[in-house]
User: Fold Reverse transcriptase domain-containing protein from Rotaria magnacalcarata.
Amino acid sequence: KFLDKILRPVFDDKCKDTTIIDGASLITELSKYNKKGLLKSTTLFCTFDICNLYTMLPQEETLDILMTFLHTHGYRKVKGISIDTIKKLASIILKDNVFAYGKKIYKQTTGGAMGSSLTLTLANIFMAKWQKNIVEEQTKTGEYYGRYIDDIFMTWNRSEEELIKLLDDLNTWHPNIKLDYKIGNSLPFLDVQLTNKNGILSTSVYHKPSAEPYVTPFISDHPRHVFSNIIKTSIERAIRYSSTFEAFNYERRYIKLMLLYNELFSYPSTFIENELHKYFSEYISKSPFLSLIDDEQKYFLLRKEILGQPTPRQTQVAMSAALADIDNDPLDDDERQQPDTYKIKSEKKSQTVTKHSLLILRMKNVSKHANEIYIEYTIMHLKIHQQCTQNKLSATATVVQHKMN
Assistant:
């Protein structure tokens, strides 16, 4: 988490133009695309996802791409830690993942640990490098390209055959990166359904067919504001995503039915109505909620106001990006223009406890947090070494006993 905390703001800042934060941010970007007159009746939508991205990351190449990424964007240090030290720490987290199965200990040789926050950031930085050429091509033709981790959305105004050829080529760019794609004029992406209706962008909430319509039970031991926030979040998403009054009313009914008929844990009808009144009264204080349901004009005024506000996730990412250049050591312009002077060295050292002890001694000028990580890693290495030794002794003893018998 320490490394992710200092690296993610850099990614959030430097790659924001091609990053999809959530469904609302995608709708905003496609609305801009539409206003430019680029959305035609023949415009195709394409989505594709990278198969098993986290577990297929090439470890050494990912570390090299991390170093190139930091140097390209002008960093000598990030939060007082040199980028060479960052590479060593990232290498420990990425490469030294072990698990026991049966009576054997295995080490992960490709990809990173699932659930690790740093693996997510490294995967994002790796994909930023992988997508560079296609982003440049989409930018030249005025088309949209956006990525949410391993899910990608793009627009296309040439023939479908050309698009399929491009996607097939993308599958050959890297041996570890394979993608599955869908092409059409109406496609789901994340939790939003996007449709091109003869050159008009239409959006609505998308529910996966396999998803069960369950929410936190009302009788559960949670603070009351948790239930209020579930209703508020659901209705606000409906407003943001529903480009038509009809789509909003459909989703509003879906939300109410989901809350009312949640088996034995349904929400009281009066509680739902009170929370809806409370939410809408913040925007339409002089009008009752029921008038909103029947008034399309008021709905669009309300939607315009809400779309002008960032989502909580968008605010979180913006705050993260704002920290990217605080307490960092940027490169001079001359150094940034001469990337060849920076060489990424892959150090091959013996896997011994002595090596890790020497590394700790060399860390005396590095921040306390980084030093603590090395110390914890050394202890972990000793424990693994001890476990392996015990396993070998146990196996040897078993063989000897078997021969004696």
